[in-house]
Write a structure and sequence with these properties.
Strand content: 25-35%
Order of helices and strands: HHEHEEHE
Number of strands: 4
Shape: elongated
Bound molecules: nickel (II) ion
Strand order of the largest sheet: 2-3-1-4
Number of helices: 4
Oligomer: single chain
Length: 139
Amino acid sequence: MAKDHLVRFGVSMPEDLIRLFDEKIAANGYENRSEAIRDLVRKSLLEPEQLRPEQLVAGTIVLVYDHHAGDLTRELTSLQHDYHHDIISTMHVHLNHSQCLELIIVKGLYGRLTELHDRLRIHKGVTYAELSVTCVMEE
Ligand code: NI
């Protein structure tokens, strides 16, 4: 299929639902339903259940943690060094006296990134850990 070839299709939907959808997408600045639906479909394809471990993807891991908790800062840094091929960049923000927010930009095999995410989030003191895939790289 050519990359820009558009396929038209009809969708049936309850009136109430499409009214709510139209209100929402208008509030978000969409001029028509098509682009809004395309965005929804693209987003749905990045959901974890759609991704395979061997797919090359890019995204972010966001962490919030208490840097006073034991050796946490050192452990999290050491763990990230184990995945240095998968980590493109890291930003650390001191949120307040005790909490840190870390934004880790990642690119690698989905299976490895979920493994890194799992290994980060199990640490005591990590109060938030979210892996978000934003792009599936061309294979
Ligand atoms: Ni900090």
